[in-house]
Amino acid sequence: MATNVALLGLGLMGKPMGHNLLKNGFALTVWNRTAARGDDLVAAGAKRVATPSEAAAAAEVVITIVSDPPAVESVLWGDNGVLAGLKRGSVLVDSSTVTPALARRAAEACGERGCEFLDAPVTGGTWGAEKGELVFMVGGKAETLERVAPVLGAMGKQWLHMGPHGAGQVIKLATNLILALQTVATAEALALVRGAGIPGEKLAEMMQASMGRSKLIDVKLPMMLEGRYTPSFPLRLMNKDAGLALELGAESGVRMPGATAAREVMTAVERAAKEDVDYAALARYWQKA
Amino acid sequence: MATNVALLGLGLMGKPMGHNLLKNGFALTVWNRTAARGDDLVAAGAKRVATPSEAAAAAEVVITIVSDPPAVESVLWGDNGVLAGLKRGSVLVDSSTVTPALARRAAEACGERGCEFLDAPVTGGTWGAEKGELVFMVGGKAETLERVAPVLGAMGKQWLHMGPHGAGQVIKLATNLILALQTVATAEALALVRGAGIPGEKLAEMMQASMGRSKLIDVKLPMMLEGRYTPSFPLRLMNKDAGLALELGAESGVRMPGATAAREVMTAVERAAKEDVDYAALARYWQKA
Fold it and tell me: Can you name the residues that pair with A61 across neighbouring β-strands?
């Protein structure tokens, strides 16, 4: 019999992940705060329920992927939350990006109910979610990861065990910090070039031949050159993650001048933006008014 | 008859560039502030002279590659400087990294003497200099670049025309700014991970699979993990270039929170360093005392 999987959170990431679970033959129960976002998954064979606890009660593997720590807290500990429905012996996998402390708190709550927990934030964006090519950064017990590997394999191409509970979140916040700062680097350099009267395309031409070349420059610099910021990964989430990184750094006494600068830039642009934009839009910080 | 080339500045970059000019059959005259640094080039067939003006007088193409703006000013405008010796019709190529303003000033001085000027800073490090695989970012007239292309081809694999006088320096400062900030990003993320009790190797493992992957992370993160900082490109030069980028930004009114943060980190580490270190050593900023 196929494993029963519950999926909570049907946003830009959750929805394609759900379709890939169905395609791979898993029995899927879904829940989302705005129920209508699950319509096409229901049409494709998923069962929709009204509360997180009902979703959890229906599954051996429960996956949550929501936008931020308050959303995770509400879905897990809220009225009719996941923890109220979780069956003994099941596994809760949180693929949201939150603080390691919250991940450890969730792990403890699962343990008290005879369940296992994994923090398993993802990278790969909506494109990776659609293609089933996500990469999971996993914190928790290695044997629990082994148990859910077939489920992760339906949605992703790789799952890396990063350490104990919370370790997945630590690595995720660190990788997003690198992305945010690479984006600041690219945008600030572009502003410097344009400010000196040289076309930004010359920087792009040179970067191909440079030690500074990167995947991020390949993908995001063209967006900056064209001022085209359709969200692949929204600025508001990248900015939120930089905030979480700063929180984590403060806990362990790590100085973070880079994250501080990136957060300043992203916050200014996010406040001024009238629409949802990709994090490449932080380049707007340098636009003349 | 082979073009007579003069090379001034026989440091980590200049010396291997000189050997490649000789290997490619150019008649080479060399000068260096500390004359002994030219011994092996003389042994390989170069002619050594006592002053920059003598070197310039001996050549159709004069290449300067010294460490910073004051060094360029001294070599060009100082007593017995290049400008005093430059023959009408010759080309001065400055491969040092300096401000665009200084490049334009040199171009003007060359013009007054009936000579051409190119700013042509390089990327590729000592490794690229030794293999003859440097990339030149060139500012100046396209036809002048065409004239000296055979000479550049002896030392590098690519020469990109970036725009008018100074444009090569603008792009060079921008690419080094990207490198410096990528390095801050990597080191700060590493500190965050280690501060949370997770081995830095886990970050490296994940970065391979991430959107954040880059040439810089491939090369510099292992150095940081091992704390091994033999200079390929010295921190003091990277820090100097960040200072020049800030100068350029200030001239054109470009805000530079990233460069400001990078400069703070690099200056703290440079001051504390007892030896010459690679710029990857900026990771020491996050070491516990």
Answer: A5, A91
DSSP state of A37: G
pTM to 2 decimal places: 0.94
User: Tokens 């440097």 — which residue?
Assistant: B134
- Residues B100 and B245: their CA atoms lie apart, in Å, by 10
Could B249 and A195 be called an inter-chain contact, meaning their C-beta atoms sit closer than 8 Å? yes
HSE on the CB side for A255, CA within 13 Å? 14
Q: How many CA within 13 A on the CB side of residue B187? A: 29
CA distances from B251 to A201, B176, B244, B289 (A): 21, 18, 11, 38
Phi-psi region of B199 (alpha: psi -120 to 50; beta: other; left: phi over 0): beta
pLDDT digits (tens, 9 = 90+) for A159-203: 999 999 999 999 999 999 999 999 999 999 999 999 999 999 999
Inter-chain contact A182–B214, Cβ cutoff 8 Å? yes
CA gap B195, A267 in Å, rounded: 25
Cβ pair A9, A64 in contact under 8 A: yes
| pLDDT computed for residue A1 by the predictor | 54
- The CA distance from A130 to B261, in Å, is 37
Check: CB of residue A14 under 8 Å from CB of residue A32: yes
Å between A32 CA and nearest CA of chain B: 28
Contact A249 B192 (CB under 8 A): yes
- Write the CA distances from A121 to A138, A158, A247, integer angstroms: 7, 12, 18
Spatial distance between the Cα atoms of A260 and B203, rounded to a whole number of angstroms: 21
pLDDT class of B126 with cuts at 50, 70, 90: confident
Domains of chain B and any CATH numbers: 4-163 (3.40.50.720), 170-288 (1.10.1040.10)
The answer to whether the beta carbons of residues A235 and A279 sit under 8 Å apart is yes
Q: Which residues contact residue A199 at a Cβ distance below 8 angstroms, ignoring those fewer than 6 apart?
A: A193, B163
The Cα A95–Cα A265 span in angstroms is 27
The total of other beta-carbon atoms located within 10 Å of residue B44's CB is 12
> Dihedral (C-alpha) B15, B21, B24, B25: value to the nearest 10 degrees?
-120
User: Is the interface score ipTM higher than 0.90?
Assistant: yes
Q: Chain A partners of B186 at a C-beta cutoff of 8 Å?
A: 178
